[in-house]
Amino acid sequence: MAISLCMGLHATHMFVPPTPGPLAVAGILSADLGQVILFGALVSIPVTLVAYLASLYAGKKYYYLPTSVEDTPENQNLPSAMMSFLPILVPIALMLLKTVGSMCKLTGTPALILNIVGTPAVALLIGLLIAAVGYHNIFPEDTKAWGFDGVIADAMKTAGQIVLIVGAGGAFSGVLKASPLRDILTASMSGVSIGILAPFLIGFLFRTCVGSATIAMVTAATMITPLIDVLGFGSPMGRIIAMLACAAGGMMVFHGNDDFFWVTATTSDMDTSIAYKTLPIISVLQSMTALVTVFLLSMVLL
């Protein structure tokens, strides 16, 4: 169950905004966020299914029972299911509605409203406000939550790291565009039909070496941005395919240099040897499944 949950989260974390990686890559590649959500969710379905089937096999082969499971206190104050999901679902719904409105060529006041609330920054801000209201309803006595020592500060620390990563990626992209390396790469890749393999391989290398899925995706997107036309991703749909290819490559190899690897192992009381025998292999299966799915989409949409 722990492996299945982990790898299911892994799939949506890589493909479906508003998680940081897809959100950042969509911005770097100037891909429509609503369509990224739609096609990212589509790709994540077979990827999650493969992880589920592999988890069933791994669960039977490496069966164990956790020894340090603690029951949740019955009187613990927890949010309702609706309040738990709203901060995530509302921004996604708003961004999707904006995309649908654009596709349907909606005009007038409804289109104006959707263009405002469906903008990623505004939609995510609305989600943040909903989460803040939910937290205040559960912990009204926590007056430090909104200060430098509270949960907002902790969230800003995490967000700040992502902003720095994206900023560094943008700077790197600017250097590539301004340097002769762009012309060299363009000349060397002209006539070479590598397509989605370029972002896929870059994402794979950085995920394996660095461990951060966000860094892997952002780096892959940054490096292909100057070559977006040469690689055949210049169209709006091509940019979405490129984003999905970055995510597919960034899925593997998921191993011990990733914090989430140890979170999964420790919270589920999983032996390290079992974690190393299962999670990296399933991540490779997910990545290859995603690559095939993205390739099929590119054949249909490009």
UniProtKB/TrEMBL annotation:
One of its GO terms (cellular component) is plasma membrane. It comes from the Bacteria. InterPro entries: Glcn_transporter. The chain crosses the membrane at residues 36-58, 78-100, 112-138, 158-177, 184-206, 212-233, 240-257, 277-301. Keywords: Membrane, Transmembrane, Transmembrane helix. One of its GO terms (molecular function) is gluconate transmembrane transporter activity. The keyword Transmembrane applies. The keyword Membrane applies. This is Gluconate:H+ symporter, GntP family.
